[in-house]
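Lab channel / #folding
Pinned by the channel admin:
"Please post every new chain as: sequence first, then the structure tokens as a reply. Keep commentary short and put observations after the output so the thread stays searchable."

First post following the new format, from NK:
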Amino acid sequence: MYFLLINARVTKGFMLYFLILQIAHSWVTIPLESNKEEWFVKQGVLVKQVIGNSPVHFQTNYKENMGEEKIAFCGSELFYIPRRFVEDFGDLVGLVGDLDLHHKIAVPMFFMAMDSPQNFDSEALAGTVFKTQLPANATFKTIYTAQAPAVFPVKVMNEIDFIKVIRLMSIGDPLLMELV
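Reply from TO:
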């Protein structure tokens, strides 16, 4: 997956673009108290552990946004963290450490701990190009476009692929050439 955010709308705090374009369909809340699915119950325990060990402002945000008796499950594969929240995101990832917290639970937990859902902007990456049923001979050059804020899926398998995709991405963002 690749993000070209120069053209993305950044007026709201978070930009989220879900594969089916609606938070309500890709982000589901799961009750914990009455839940009989052991996996969700264990994930809930891990969420409580991470949030409980978080700085107070993360705890407050999370509890105001989610409460304590449910967790969010996110079916998205594409999301964006604004620069001002990158450090917070890194801190939260660090709190997870080696816990077996699944990313489909961890990502919404991070977002809910950092900011309020009313600041999420689900339209920001609406110009995303989804390439499905790619031919076997598809290359980065054939699937990439600098006119889209994101191209999905772009799978980088090794360092050479990474360099190739960065060079192509630099068409839309010349600063990326500094990486290679």
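NK: Helices lie at 23-26, 38-52, 56-66, 83-96, 103-114, 140-143, 159-169.
TO: also worth noting, Residues 129-179 form one domain.
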